[in-house]
């Protein structure tokens, strides 16, 4: 054995320095571990029988003195056999189609480019599914490097997932799979190795360190303006992780356009600040100073002057203006362009990464080991004509019903929490108003000119709601995994889709329910003085909107939840893995580099986990909902999302490259179920933004007043405030201790005054405004949907050059295989006897006729 002091263990090879380590298993011996020891013995023996080569590092060689490491190498025969089974696509001819990617003025993008050997680490080839019997058909220069490291670890994990470790006495039922061995503690970890330390080049002068290149050119924050090396990411981590970063990068690029337009709309609101006629009336002593408003809660709330809401009125104008309507329409079109152009980008990646026919392979070949283990029944597969496990329909229905009931229970829990927050708002508002008021008539002029009970209640309620959201997220994630496991999905794709639907449905209700409440319910079912509506028949009066309008409250809610989620998410993603790794590797920090083995370094890192990539998608899709569903209330939302995503790309790259073990490579031809979720949210966003502009903002009432209720010849907003407030006679009854102070008070509504034949019924202006709101919704929705469908029709999902390349590749596969078979038969014909020659000639003739 090579001397420990002389031989560097920071290597990705066996002790012989020749065989590459494709996978590592680790375990710790327990005092009562005879059963686990027997499982390991049988499992490793079966791995050797399959053809894998194993080498064990004794616990005395590890830095903690108790962990064993089993290193696994897959020789060429095993790789070739399973590459044939999995239909891995490999090169057979150099790509001969000219690259027309050079565009005019391409020099403008030079500052954003990465070196060519980083962007395109491998030459471009035409590929075909590997066939072991035709290995000389493919371009095999070196068998050791023919299959990429990501392909090698994917093949090894496929074997590990299906190798048995126990057979019962009857011999008809196996227990199999590395996942079950990890769950029952037989092994503590299973992972492929990183190719080097992330801050140093590879020790092998003939081998490039992809991890080092990724960290240098991709994971550092100061590369934020550079393009992502997607081909290198795909080569090192596999297609599934590559497609995520391709989508995240494309989404971030598209956010730039939305952020620019949203910022322009905000600037427009700021520049028209002084043209805001209704805010001037609210702030003036002549109008707002002489209008006494009715109390906003029972008993403890006093009357207040309208001019005390001067600041909130000005703030509301920044977001509630004509530019907001334009931006809502623009975002409806932007989201369509984003989804359509992403389909084209995805189609190009499918071709470049050999994923065009992948979905069928995924469904037919890769059954989940858990499905094979738990389904004891067998039936004939009509396609493969082999017996395969299946789950009876009765069991499927029972499991689905239980799963659905669990999801509904948790959604009900979220709604109950939201109702609790609403009750908090109602109960605490009166307390804030009572504490903060200076006098009975100015109880909204509080501790400084900018703080109101509405603002204090809204901010504290939003913060409480955010805390509840984060707590429920932690709880539900475990529940969602449990009920998805209980359903026993057949394939990995089906498992991820089921989990995606459950988690998104929960997160949708969890994150957006409070925003939906403020946007579409708050202030809509209030009643009027003397006949207020109460929450579920309690003594808590339904909330009214902030005097500046509900839109500013929706903006506050959106900013707190969206910004809080993004900031907390980035801190958690970066800080938690770093702290855990720092603590876990504390014993090894003083070891010489040559003694701290490559497998121990990776073992001390965090596991990427089953939900690692899933959580990243979910985080971005929830953000996508914030910037589309409620963007009419906050045009700066895309700008905040853009800033977050620029950081997010580098944070995700940094933690994946430096803080996590190398994930097992997996294939994916698209972003999966997330695509349909994004499409659904894009359609829903048109509806929600139209309703926000119509019912949450004051845009429609202002336009109706200006065009229908202004004196002839005047086209301005003078008199709007007085027109939009109804009058209530206090003597008609008001549940408040200050009722003897005034005769009349005003409130936000369009109702006839006391003494009118339709006393306190809605006026005709109310119905005109309602009709205008409905007309606005119908017109905007139809216009945006027509434009959306026209744009979707105009932009083909697959670029024409990609179609040509796919057809060219399929043609070449047929042509080259035909020529290969003919040449092979000719060679055999020249080498065989006369009788064999007659038979081979007949075969050759038949082959030529068929082709």
Automatic annotation (TrEMBL):
Keywords attached to this Swiss-Prot or TrEMBL record, sorted alphabetically, are: Cell membrane, Glycoprotein, Membrane, Transmembrane, Transmembrane helix
InterPro entries from the UniProt entry: Anoct_dimer, Anoctamin, Anoctamin_TM
Q: Which Pfam families match?
A: Anoct_dimer (PF16178), Anoctamin (PF04547)
- Domain Anoctamin dimerisation intervals: 13-230
Anoctamin transmembrane domain location:
233-809
Q: Does the keyword Glycoprotein apply?
A: yes
Belongs to which family? Belongs to the anoctamin family.
Its lineage reads: Eukaryota, Metazoa, Chordata, Craniata, Vertebrata
Location in the cell: Cell membrane; Membrane
Asked if the Swiss-Prot or TrEMBL record annotates the protein with the keyword Glycoprotein, the reply is: yes
Name the residues that span the membrane: 244-271, 322-342, 407-435, 455-476, 624-647, 677-696, 774-795
Main localization of the protein described in the UniProt heading: membrane
| Protein name (record) | Anoctamin
Q: How is this protein positioned relative to the membrane?
A: Multi-pass membrane protein
Recorded GO molecular functions are: chloride channel activity; protein dimerization activity
Q: Please give an example of a GO cellular component term from this record.
A: plasma membrane
